[in-house]
Q: What sequence folds into this?
């Protein structure tokens, strides 16, 4: 049995979008309108996609919480290390402070360079996997 034919009147902008959508291979005006009517009459058919997206967002939310927790642990560990270091290090005599300050500045600069290099190499690695 052939499909019944109907005549439609569409707004000019909607018709232009429909016509543009049919430029893709395999897309027809009838197929697009049939799919739209199926979704209109059966909204549950579309909910499967929404449920999958919501499940995916839930996983992202859980992972974000884990990342925030890990960063909190890392910052707390660093803070405890600095506190321990500062409370256990004896003060320097006045004559040695200038040399120690210069040495400390060089060590800090080296540390900052190493951190920047690691972050930069990690960013390049992440860029390779970005879609």
A:
């Amino acid at each position: 049995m052939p499909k019944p034919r109907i005549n439609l009147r569409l707004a000019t902008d909607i018709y232009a979008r429909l016509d543009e959508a049919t430029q893709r291979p395999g897309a027809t005006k009838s197929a697009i309108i049939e799919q739209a009517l199926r979704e209109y009459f059966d909204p549950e058919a579309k909910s499967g996609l929404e449920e999958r997206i919501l499940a995916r967002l839930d996983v992202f939310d859980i992972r974000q919480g884990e990342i925030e927790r890990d960063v909190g642990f890392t910052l707390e560990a660093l803070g405890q290390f600095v506190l321990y270091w500062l409370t256990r290090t004896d003060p320097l005599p006045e004559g040695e402070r200038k040399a120690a300050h210069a040495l400390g500045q060089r060590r800090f600069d080296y540390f900052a360079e190493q951190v920047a290099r690691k972050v930069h190499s990690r960013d390049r690695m992440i860029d390779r996997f970005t879609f």
